[in-house]
Amino acid sequence: MNQTRKNSIDMLRILAALAVVIFHVLGSSANNDPEIQRNIHYVVTAFSAVLQWHVPVFFMITGYLWLSDGKNCTFEKMVPNIRRFILVLFTFGLGYAIMERFFMTRSVSIALLWSSLQDVLNGNLWDHMWFVYAIIGIYMVLPVFKPFFALSSTKTIALLTGLLCLFTIIFPILETKFDYSIPIVFPIQEYMFYVSPED
After folding, report:
1. What is the pLDDT of residues 153-171, one digit of tens each?
2. Which of 98, 108, 122, 170 fits a disulfide with 116 by CB distance 3.0 to 4.6 angstroms?
3. Which of 116, 131, 146 is the endpoint of a domain?
């Protein structure tokens, strides 16, 4: 990125990464150990809730680094980041997919490799890989959003927040309650709204 590194940002990344690990360890322990479920279920649940900030922080850091005033956010600048995460997707992600299909079939074949590649392209991977898909999409739209953040008003931000609430909270509740699918979708996922410049 050729930008001066900030110790505070690096420290925040470290803390968020530790929070991710602790969050998933706690979740795994609570789900798999009946003793833990019985004795400290509420403590584990509360502690996990406190750590819910871990993923949004990574998106906020992205916004701070790319959308703040004076930051050069262009498609050309985004390409190396997109390429890097695609590499992660097709190394670790493909590795996970191959491993999972191997343990299901106990065999290695061209068909297995092809199915594993399709899993990566379709996003049919282990749950934690969702972040890679999300960050690739965010890097792709950041240059489009950069001018908006430079010109946006409080009223516009309030409107977008209301639309976000409508499409990610209210509509899903109504769909569940009435067993009806609302065909109108919001074009930007909710995690994009964590990505904002510094004030």
Report:
1. 677 667 777 777 787 778 8
2. 98
3. 146
